[in-house]
Amino acid sequence: MDVDRAVKEAVTERCRTETHRIRFEYRSGMLLIWLPSGRQLTYVKPRMGINSFGSEAVTYEGVGATKKWERIESYGPKFVENIVQAISRDILCCAMRKLNEKGFDIVMHVHDEVVLEVPLEVTVTDICTLMNQTPTWAQGLLLRADGYECNFYKKD
């Protein structure tokens, strides 16, 4: 509920709040959520409203299910989900940079996995060791990469 409280306070008070190394800020008609990586999530024209269950909720403008701009209801756990997915993406990007610096050919990435084409002498352990390194902005976060080797791409 810390994120829910921080988001609501930022929107109602038009101020800056923080919880768990994540900063929430209302600025120029936007709700900005600053991630530990320094990247931000942006929600357009946030305001307090009443959700479909009759409770107070943050709403914002975005592209909804109709593929048109509309006011979207949100709530603490949904903001947490967005934050976790964004941080996971930032961690994967850091790992991909490390792989790229070592000269590994990244064929593609899908959500939380990366597909590489590497010389035969490179092991899955070599790749996982690189991907297990915690970015400096996420100190204290324990990472563990897992992988497998095959001749053709397949979902594990």
By secondary-structure content and strand pairing, the structural class works out as alpha+beta
Count of helical stretches: 3
N-end to C-end Cα span: 35 Å
SSE topology string: HEEEEEEHEEH
Low-confidence stretches: none
Assembly status: single chain
Question: What can you see in these coordinates?
Answer:
With about 160 residues, this protein is of the alpha+beta class. It contains 3 helices and 8 strands; from the N terminus they run H-E-E-E-E-E-E-H-E-E-H. A 6-stranded antiparallel β-sheet has the order 1-2-3-4-5-6, with helices on one face. A two-stranded antiparallel sheet has the order 7-8. It is elongated and about 60 Å long.
Strand and helix map with partners:
Blueprint: H1 2-13, E1 16-19, E2 22-27, E3 30-34, E4 40-50, E5 56-63, E6 69-74, H2 76-101, E7 105-110, E8 113-117, H3 124-131
Antiparallel strand pairs: 1-2, 2-3, 3-4, 4-5, 5-6, 7-8
Summarize the structure.
The protein is 29% helix and 33% strand. With 156 residues, the protein is an alpha+beta fold. A hairpin with a 5-residue loop joins β4 and β5.
Any key phrases for this structure?
single chain; about 160 residues; alpha+beta; 6-stranded antiparallel beta sheet; about 30% helix
